[in-house]
Design a protein that fits this description.
- The complex is a heterodimer.
- By secondary structure, chain A is mainly alpha-helical.
- Chain A is 42% helix and 3% strand.
- Chain A is globular, with a radius of gyration of 11 Å.
- Helix content of chain B is 18%, strand content 28%.
- The chains are: A mainly alpha, B alpha+beta.
- Chains A and B meet through β1 of A and β5 and α3 of B.
């Protein structure tokens, strides 16, 4: 689910990070440190400032048209 | 068809630059996940809704050729029966597991599986295109997904083909050094030695040749112009009530009596136009032709480009990448749709009228993302989106009819 301007809402960000291999998918429970690391990896691959924060640019990038294959290992 | 295929190959080999960089990427699936043969077969299982099979087959062939040009691989299309790689279009959940279900327009456009599963799946709900900026370019997405079927993972290299993000077909080289290094680590260099690389421009030129070659005279079983099978990029009507339908690098004319021309090269009538346009409008106010693509506007008097054109849309205070444009007599100006808003262009000042853009809701019932619009001699405005049309009545200021244009409108040439 994305908001009208194509941005992924924060609540969905963890689902996105799971789908594309940044977070494990067991029981869907992640501690803040795991999420921060996952966000940093996603920002690095996406050429965004690596802050570990789910800022606007990061959420918007998650709504960008892309390939459905996981990013893990890249 | 073979003559055409040789012509296309000549376009590719004639438009290549050799690759100098020798960087080494490390991006491929776990060791062992590669094909242990160099000649792979592929099949297109089904087709996107609004593109004719011919150009789709060309795009897929070109996408495979992209990789065979730079590696020791060779590919062959096999229309029926078992093949190494299969390409198919699906909607939503399609037996690949919930996390691989497609999500409609936008988001995940396609996905594929590493060797030797040999599957590449595309979201049929996407607006697939082979030209221009409306929709997602099927050639580029197919080339990316083929990379996965060969064992390549996503690349962190910006603008590489194997970057996870959709990349438009532009003028640049399609494969980056990283893409080439990764595929050569798995399958070696091409037998002929130096890899040859394809630019987006070369692909567009090859597709233009197809569109000119692929018309009814070459295929007696096709009785209608190509655009009748799918969508078009733009439509307008001139002072003689001749309708012009634009698609890719060609256009068709439909006379007031309903006679349809063969496909005509856009750039032959309007020199300096790009290979494909996003919006077109004839203005009865000044009898000039207006074309829009990306961030630029072209204006012609007949076939002569007016002085000072092309000019930037921003100079006129207009948005770029328009959906459609049309002259609207009740306003005495040109109207331009983009997304959920519309602008009004004053053709005397060539500036956007003040207090625009405004929300599309002013045009009660008009959908977003229209391909084109034109006003018929009775003053009614027809708007088109993919297979559908809407008729807008300027007197009632609302939609009064909608339907399937290829079936319902006898003046559109289908």
């Amino acid at each position: 689910p994305v908001s009208t301007d194509g941005r992924v809402e924060t609540a969905e960000a963890e689902g996105f990070l799971e789908k594309y291999g940044y977070l494990h998918q067991d029981n869907h429970i992640h501690n803040p440190a795991e999420v921060k690391t996952a966000v940093r990896e996603f920002q690095w691959l996406s050429h965004l400032p690596v802050t570990g924060q789910l800022d606007g640019a990061t959420l918007k990038q998650m709504g960008t048209p892309r390939c459905g294959v996981k990013d893990e290992g890249s | 068809h073979q003559v055409w295929a040789q012509r296309v190959y000549a376009v590719f080999t004639g438009k290549m630059a050799s690759n100098g960089s020798q960087n080494r990427g490390k991006r491929y699936a776990q060791p062992g996940e590669k094909w242990y043969k160099r000649h792979l077969t592929y099949r297109i299982v089904n087709w996107p809704r609004h593109l004719a099979p011919g150009p789709v087959r060309l795009a897929v062939r070109a996408a495979f050729q992209l990789w065979s040009n730079v590696s020791g691989l060779a590919f062959q299309e096999v229309p029926e029966g078992p093949t190494d790689i299969r390409l198919a279009f699906y909607e939503g959940e399609h037996n690949d597991g919930a996390s691989n279900a497609f999500d409609g327009p936008g988001g995940a456009l396609a996905h594929a599986f590493f060797p030797c599963r040999g599957e590449a799946h595309f979201d049929i709900a996407e607006r697939w295109t082979l030209y221009g900026h409306k929709g997602h370019n099927l050639f580029m997405v197919t080339a990316h997904e083929i990379g996965h079927t060969l064992g390549l993972e996503h690349s962190p290299v910006r603008h590489s083909l194997m970057s996870p993000y959709y990349r438009k077909l532009g003028r640049a080289l399609v494969l980056s050094w990283d893409d080439i290094a990764a595929v050569q680590q798995l399958y070696g260099k091409p037998l002929g030695g130096q890899p040859i690389r394809l630019t987006g421009q070369a692909f567009s030129s090859a597709l233009q040749e197809w569109e000119l070659a692929e018309e009814p005279e070459g295929h007696p079983e096709i009785t209608q112009p190509l655009y009748c099978q799918g969508v078009f990029d733009a439509i307008t009507m001139d002072q003689n009530h001749t309708v012009l339908v634009f698609r890719g690098s060609v256009y068709w004319t439909v006379s007031a009596q309903g006679n349809v021309s063969a496909p005509l090269p856009l750039q032959q009538r309007w020199p300096h136009l790009p290979l494909a346009i996003e919006a077109a409008a004839f203005s009865p106010l000044d009898s000039k032709w207006y074309f829009f693509k990306g961030k630029r506007i072209w204006r012609y008097s007949g076939s002569a480009l007016d002085h000072g054109f092309p000019r930037r849309s921003s100079q006129a205070g207009l948005p770029c990448h328009l959906d459609c444009a049309f002259y609207y007599a009740p306003l005495g100006h040109m109207v331009l749709f983009k997304g959920s808003r519309y602008s009004v262009l004053n053709l005397h000042t060539l500036r956007s009228e003040p207090y625009y853009p405004r929300r599309l809701a002013d045009w009660t019932g008009v959908p977003q993302g229209t391909n084109g619009a034109l006003t018929r001699p009775d003053g009614r405005l027809y708007l088109f989106r993919e297979q559908q049309y809407w008729r807008f009545d300027p007197v009632k200021v609302r939609m009064t009819r909608e339907g399937q244009w290829a079936q319902d409108l006898e003046w559109i040439g289908c």
